[in-house]
Write a structure and sequence with these properties.
The chain is an all-alpha fold. Helices cover 81% and strands 0% of the residues. It starts with 5 loop residues before the first helix and ends with a helix.
Length: 31
């Protein structure tokens, strides 16, 4: 799990982007 490859980086970026999108949906829903 310590391998730092381009595929791992892109997967991490995709996950981060999804988390930001998901949190934004929750935040908008609470307003």
């Amino acid at each position: 799990m310590e391998m730092k490859t381009d595929s791992n980086l892109s997967a991490h970026q995709r996950t981060s982007r999804f988390l930001i999108f998901y949190l934004n949906k929750i935040y908008e829903g609470k307003q």
